[in-house]
Amino acid sequence: MTLAAQPGSADPALNQPDPALDQSIAPDQPVADEPAVLAAGHVDLGPRYVDDEWTLLIHDDAAQPVWRDPDRTVLRVTDAALQTVPDDPVYGFLGVPAGTQVHVVPQVQHPDVVWVGWNTQDPRVMQTIDRGVTLELADVDGPGEVTMYLQAGTFSEPQVLWRSTEQPGQPMWVEVNTHTHANWVFTAPGVYLVAVRVSADLVGGEQVTATRHLRFAVGDATSTDDALAAQPGEVAAVAPTAGPDDDGPGGTGGTGPWLVVGLVVVALGLAVALIVVVLRGRAVRRRVEQERTQP
Q: CB–CB of 238/249 below 8 Å?
């Protein structure tokens, strides 16, 4: 399996835009009001001013170019995105065994899979930011793990950008007028809310920041309505691969509250047994003393 095969820069600063991704964005492209489900085609996350407010929107270039509100947009990752993790230690950063099937939004466009990247090409953004922006992974809610990485060709080492298993943040510097795509890997089907923060220093000396949630519906069986209605902190985050010896979300070895209940019952039983032994011991001592004092 090839999780990434796009030629281009793997520079951590992402300062060298791939010529194959050359595009420009008109200043008058509208912001759509209606909800949308995007299951294929070209999509970018990017900073934009809306009513003079710095924010983060989704640029939908699948048909007529338009900007979309992330809270009203679902990125549907169908089972056409399923790939098998190869038996190669270079992909160990994914944290799943070789042979596991995962959903991959690829770095190279697949006609049946939504193609998610990012850009800093809105004209007003390019005029006002000082050199570039910082993108950060603020949080991930979902049933599995999310990893985003770049790979400059089949034989190059993957460059991990974001992992939901690490601490929030993981800043990524993006130069002005950049357009880039990467691999997004989801280890389990379900609804994911991926919080992304974009910050920048402006040429006037001000600092701006905004955090928005990308809504992913991963897998054919996942409801896009559920993804649209999901709220941060309310998405199920139980890993489906957790076994009896694994640490589950509650840190109880994957057996959940039943293990805790069992331990409490055992402890109470031992306490009762100890009390009985003590009482019996006292009764025996009293009887012996009474027998000794009798003539």
A: yes
Query: Measured between alpha carbons, how far is residue 165 from residues 78, 137, 177, 198, 212 in Å?
Result: 23, 11, 30, 20, 20
For the chain, the farthest-separated pair of C-alpha atoms sits apart, in whole angstroms, at 114
Note the pLDDT tens digit of each residue in 190-243: 999 999 999 999 999 999 999 999 999 999 999 999 999 999 988 865 433 333
What span, in angstroms and rounded, lies between the C-alpha atoms of 248 and 170? Answer: 24
pLDDT (mean) for 111-139: 97
> ∠ at Cα 6 (3, 12), nearest 5°?
90
Those residues whose C-beta lies under 8 Å from the C-beta of residue 151, and which sit 6 or more positions away, are 3, 4, 5, 6, 10, 107, 157, 158, 159, 183
Q: Do 75 and 40 touch, CB atoms closer than 8 A?
A: no
Q: Which of 238, 144, 242, 241 lies closest to 192, judged by CA?
A: 144
Q: What is the dihedral of CA 201, 138, 47, 230, to 10 degrees?
A: -150
Rounded to whole angstroms, the Cα distance separating 99 from 85 reads 5
Whole-number Å distance between alpha carbons of 143 and 80? 19
